[in-house]
Amino acid sequence: MPILEMHLMKGRTEEQKCNAAKAVTEALVSSLGVKRESVRILITEHGEHDFFVSGMTMKERSQAQLSAQQSAQQPLNAEGK
C-alpha cells in the first residue's frame, strides 16, 4: 500500500488538491502496478511563515525574488549604472 505525503503552500482550492490526488493516484497505479484502492495520499498545507527555503520563510523568499526582478528591470543610466 503506497502512502504518499504532499506538502503544499496554503491557497490551493479543494478542486486543485483533488485533481492532484487523482493524477498522483493514476501515476502510482500505472508505474507501480498497485490497486487504486490501496493508494493513500496525505496533504499537509503550510502557511508562508511555516515553510523555509535557504533559511528564509516563503514570504521573505518571495519578497527577495520580487526585489531582484525589479532591480534587474531598472534601466541603466548614462554611466551604465
UniProtKB/TrEMBL annotation:
Keyword Isomerase included in the entry's annotation: yes
InterPro entries: 4-OT-like_dom, Tautomerase/MIF_sf
Keywords on record: Isomerase
Domain (4-oxalocrotonate tautomerase-like): residue spans on this chain: 2-57
A molecular-function term among this protein's GO annotations: isomerase activity
Biased composition (Low complexity): 63-74
Chain intervals for the UniProt region annotation (Disordered): 62-81
Family label: Belongs to the 4-oxalocrotonate tautomerase family.
Protein name: 4-oxalocrotonate tautomerase
Protein species of origin: Alteromonas lipolytica
